[in-house]
Amino acid sequence: MNMFGLMETSGSAMQAERMRAEVVAANMANAETTRTAAGTPYHRQMVVFAANPGDGAFSRSLAQAAGTTSQPEVSTGVHIAQVVEDPAPPLKRYDPGHPDAGPDGYVAYPNINPLTEMVDLMGATRAYGLNGSAVQAEKGMITSALEIAKG
Hints:
The chain has a two-stranded antiparallel ribbon. Strands 3-4 form a two-stranded antiparallel sheet. The radius of gyration is 23 Å and the shape is elongated. The two termini are 26 Å apart. It has one domain (5-31, 45-85, 112-150). The chain contains 3 helices and 4 strands; from the N terminus they run αβαβββα. It is α+β, with helices and mostly antiparallel strands. Helix content is 48%, strand content 19%. The chain has helices at 5-29, 57-66, 114-150, and strands at residues 45-53, 75-85, 91-94, 106-109.
């Protein structure tokens, strides 16, 4: 892994967290959507992260320095593997005057908890910010290394 590999890792995490925040925003925007194009209530979406495979150069160097031959699994960041639908059933509310009410007077609403969504959004925002800080720290280290090389 070269010096810029750390930036690539943090950059991929920032992209994944941005997508996670967009999915949360879509969930919040559709919290009251009782009918989609498919004719069903909106289903909450969730992101699934996966590690990007790495080349193992850093692990090999670390194993050599430690005098071992075992190499841990290597990754060079993260990506969104897929966006999946929450399998939870819709919430039923009695509202016989609603246009989407069934014959029993109940309306199926998305099973979206605003508190859960806000916690998820806070987690995505925090992880995005921390990865941004890591990029800034690496930029500072690279700048310092260049100053040392000049002097």
